[in-house]
Design brief:
Blueprint (H helix, E strand, L loop, with lengths): L1 H7 L12 E5 L2 E4 L4 E4 L2 H4 L8 H13 L12 H12 L7 E5 L2 H16 L3 E5 L8 H5 L4 H4 L9 E4 L14 E7 L14 H12 L2 E5 L23 E5 L9 E5 L1 H4 L18 H15 L3 H15 L7 E5 L2 E5 L3 H13 L2 E2 L9 E4 L7 H19 L1
Parallel strand pairs: 3-13, 5-6, 5-7, 7-8, 8-9
Antiparallel strand pairs: 1-2, 2-3, 4-10, 9-10, 11-12, 12-14
Helix pairs in contact: 3-10, 4-10, 11-13, 12-13
C-alpha cells in the first residue's frame, strides 16, 4: 500500500508521516502492523470527539439508510441541513442567525469574503500577516504568508496585511475596506492569541468605517477553546463567522454564519451568488448535528480548560520555551525547527502522534480530541518528555 500511496496519490509535502492506517477508535489510531498511536492531533483539530464516536457513527449510518445527495444545495428542504443550521444559529450571537453550509473551511472563507463585498459594495480586504484561511486562490489571497503564496501569484487583488495585536495598524481600516478577516487565534503562525482587547478594537474600527469583521473559527470554534466560539473569550462579536474542521466530527464540512439580512443578498442580484453542489451533504450534516449535540450535552467545553491546565502541568521541560494557545488548541514551542522535527518523529516511534504548524517551525501541535481522558493526557505528555530527554542526551 505504501508503494501505491507514493506512486498514485498526489503528495502535499516531501516527507509525509506515511502511517499505513488500519482503523481508529477513541483517542487511538492503529496501523496495519497492529501498533497503536495516541492521537494528540485529532486530524488537525477536526476529530472533536475522537475516532469512530458511537453517536456520530450512528447518525451517519441512519442517514445513509434514508438518502444521501438529492439536490444542489439550497433547493430541497432536508432535515439534517435544517437541523444543523438551526443548532449553529441557536449557539451563536443573536445577530448571527443564518447559516450557509459548505464543503470545507476554505469554501466558507470564500463565501464570507464574497458576502462582505456584496454587503459593502467594496473590495478591499484587511487580513493578518502570517494568517492562514485555506488554500484556494481566494483564501490564499487573504493568507499573509508569502512563502506559501509566491508560487501562485497573481492572486485576487485588493488585500492589505497588518500585524495581529498592532493597535497602530488599525488606521489602515478605512471607508474603502469591505472587511477585516482574522483568525480568532492565529493557527499556522504559532497559536498566537489576541492581546489587549485587540479584536474588540478592530470591531470598533470596522463599525466606524462601515466595514465587516470576519472571524475565522475553523480551529477555535465548536468548543476547542473553552467556549462554543473562540471569540467569546475575547469580548467581541463578529459580523461573519467562518467555521469548519471540528464541526463535522471527522467529516468534511464548513459554514459561514451572518445575519439573515446580509445573507439574503446572496440569493439575488445575481441569483446564485454563492452555490455549491455538495455543500450541506445530508450525511455530513447529520454527523455535524450529532457532534454538536454531544459537545453541548456534556461537560466537554468546560473540561477543555481543565485539560489545558493538565497539559501545562505535565509538560514542563527546560527545552520547552513556552506553551501557547487556549483550551485544547496548544503549541509547545522549542528552540529550533530541527529540534521540533526530531521530537515529533521520536514521539511517533513511541506511539504518540504530534504534528507541525504551517509557519512556526519550532512548534509541536497539541490539539487532541475534546474527550481525551486525563490519563491519556498524562501518557502523551510523558512520551513527549521521554522523547526530549532521549534526544537531549
Amino acid at each position: 500500500m505504501k508503494s501505491d500511496f507514493f506512486t498514485y496519490q498526489a503528495q502535499t509535502s516531501p516527507h509525509p508521516l506515511a502511517l499505513e492506517i488500519s482503523h481508529a477508535k477513541g483517542s487511538y489510531i492503529y496501523d496495519t502492523s497492529g501498533k497503536k498511536y495516541l492521537d494528540f492531533v485529532a486530524g488537525v483539530s477536526a476529530n472533536s470527539l475522537g475516532h469512530n464516536h458511537p453517536k456520530v457513527s450512528e447518525a451517519i449510518k441512519n442517514q445513509i439508510d434514508k438518502y444521501t445527495h438529492v439536490m444542489v444545495y439550497g433547493e430541497f428542504i432536508q432535515e439534517p441541513q435544517v437541523d444543523l443550521c438551526k443548532l449553529l444559529a441557536q449557539n451563536s450571537p443573536k445577530t448571527l442567525n443564518t447559516v450557509y453550509l459548505t464543503n470545507s473551511g476554505t469554501e466558507a472563507t470564500e463565501g464570507a469574503i464574497k458576502l462582505a463585498k456584496r454587503v459593502t459594495n467594496r473590495f478591499e480586504i484587511i487580513a493578518a500577516k502570517n494568517a492562514y484561511h485555506g488554500n484556494t486562490q481566494g483564501a490564499m489571497s487573504v493568507s499573509g504568508a508569502e512563502q506559501q503564496n509566491r508560487a501562485f501569484r497573481p492572486l485576487i487583488p485588493g488585500t492589505k496585511f497588518i500585524s495581529l495585536n498592532c493597535d497602530f495598524c488599525l488606521h489602515q481600516i478605512t471607508e474603502k475596506t469591505a472587511a477585516v478577516i482574522f483568525e480568532t487565534i492565529q493557527g499556522g503562525a504559532g497559536f498566537i492569541e489576541p492581546q489587549g482587547n485587540f479584536l474588540a478594537k478592530v470591531k470598533a474600527k470596522c463599525d466606524e468605517v462601515g466595514a465587516l469583521l470576519i472571524l475565522d473559527e475553523i480551529q477555535t470554534g465548536i468548543g476547542r477553546t473553552g467556549k462554543f466560539w473562540g471569540f467569546e473569550n475575547y469580548n467581541v462579536t463578529p459580523d461573519i463567522i467562518i467555521t469548519g474542521k471540528g464541526l463535522g466530527g471527522g467529516m468534511p464540512i464548513g459554514a459561514f454564519i451572518a445575519s439573515n439580512k446580509h445573507m439574503s443578498l446572496l440569493k439575488e442580484n445575481p441569483k446564485l451568488g454563492h452555490i455549491s453542489t455538495f455543500a450541506g451533504h445530508p450525511v455530513i450534516a447529520a454527523a455535524g448535528k450529532a457532534t454538536i449535540n454531544e459537545i453541548l450535552q456534556t461537560k466537554l467545553i468546560s473540561e477543555t480548560l481543565k485539560k489545558e491546565k493538565l497539559i501545562r502541568k505535565y509538560l514542563q521541560h527546560n527545552l520547552i520555551l513556552e506553551i501557547r494557545g487556549k483550551g485544547l488548541m496548544l503549541a509547545a514551542i522549542v528552540e529550533t525547527p530541527e529540534l521540533a522535527a526530531k521530537i515529533i518523529y521520536k514521539c511517533l516511534d513511541k506511539g504518540l502522534i504530534l504534528f507541525f504548524l504551517l509557519f512556526e517551525g519550532r512548534a509541536l501541535r497539541i490539539t487532541p480530541p475534546l474527550n481525551i481522558t486525563d490519563e491519556e493526557i498524562k501518557k502523551g505528555c510523558s512520551i513527549i518528555l521521554e522523547s526530549i530527554n532521549e534526544i537531549a542526551k
